[in-house]
């Protein structure tokens, strides 16, 4: 039996390459509801509580749009603390006129989907209470995608006006394009130690720590054997996984080495790429 990652493991932050920082900041502040934590000439770190970094935007002057049918980001998912918060975000986006790409009921969560000005996929979602999450006979979660009951959700918005993302917001999960599901399975389960929670044939896999519905999603919807995007493409530069202590970080690094993954060690951090080139920063929670 594989060693499993610590149950308190979470996704930390997402680092994106963008083509125009000012434009992206307007979008992520005014439409999504982040705040600036710090800003440099070509980079900004965004937060919701004034302390915790959740999103890093880095402008490259030579950036090109991520080519279709390449590996990398499918979407990153912003988890708001309750249904009313999701309702207020949806109402704000509808009133702004910004185009949405979808709105879904996944049984364990309700979600809305859109893309940023560079085409980076975003999900904003709220979890249902854990006791309502349904499992199949095999023990996996029922991963369904049905139309969201938008009217019912919007009724939760109440009279409280939208003031941006609540301070309790976090990055709930990240969903990636990969070139090979079997290779991703070995890396994320045997290497990192996540547990499989939903399998969709041989084209999508969802994994988590601590019984969550999923912290990581991988799919081959960009094509089996899809190549990596160019280094200067917009999209995912890296995402971080937060572990509770240094001992757990060491355990993950050892597991990764056992499967032959190349791990670069930094102070209280380790950097590794999955078999499709998606870069991950492993670090201890602050």
TrEMBL record:
It holds the Pfam family Glyoxalase. Keywords: Dioxygenase, Oxidoreductase. Signal peptide: none annotated. Coiled coil: none annotated. Residues 10-127, 170-286 form the VOC domain. It comes from the Bacteria. The keyword Transport does not apply. GO terms for molecular function: dioxygenase activity. InterPro entries: Glyas_Bleomycin-R_OHBP_Dase, Glyas_Fos-R_dOase_dom, VOC_core. This is Catechol 2,3-dioxygenase. It comes from Thermolongibacillus altinsuensis.
């Amino acid at each position: 039996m594989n060693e499993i990652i610590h149950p308190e493991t979470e996704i930390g932050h997402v680092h994106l390459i963008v083509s125009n920082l000012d434009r992206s900041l307007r979008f992520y502040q005014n439409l999504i509801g982040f705040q600036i934590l710090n800003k440099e000439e070509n980079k900004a770190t965004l937060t919701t509580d004034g302390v915790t970094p959740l999103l890093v935007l880095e402008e490259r002057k030579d950036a090109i749009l991520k080519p279709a049918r390449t590996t990398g980001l499918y979407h990153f998912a912003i988890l708001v603390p309750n249904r009313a918060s999701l309702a207020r975000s949806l109402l704000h986006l509808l009133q702004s006129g910004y185009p949405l790409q979808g709105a879904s009921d996944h049984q364990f969560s309700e979600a809305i989907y859109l893309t940023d000005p560079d085409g980076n996929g975003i999900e904003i979602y709220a979890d249902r209470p854990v006791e309502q999450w349904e499992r199949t006979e095999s023990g996996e979660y029922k991963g369904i995608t049905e139309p969201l009951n938008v009217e019912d959700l919007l009724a939760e918005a109440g009279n409280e006006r939208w003031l941006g993302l609540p301070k309790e917001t976090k990055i709930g999960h990240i969903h990636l394009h990969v070139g090979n599901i079997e290779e991703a399975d070995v890396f994320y389960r045997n290497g990192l130690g996540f547990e499989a929670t939903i399998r969709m044939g041989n084209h999508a896999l969802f994994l988590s720590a601590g019984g969550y519905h999923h912290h990581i999603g991988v799919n081959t919807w960009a094509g089996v054997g899809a190549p990596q995007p160019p280094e200067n493409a917009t999209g995912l530069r890296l995402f971080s996984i937060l572990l509770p202590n240094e001992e757990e970080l060491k355990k993950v690094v050892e597991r990764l080495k056992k499967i032959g993954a190349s791990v670069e060690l930094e102070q209280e951090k380790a950097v590794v790429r999955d078999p499709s080139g998606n870069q991950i920063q492993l670090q201890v929670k602050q």
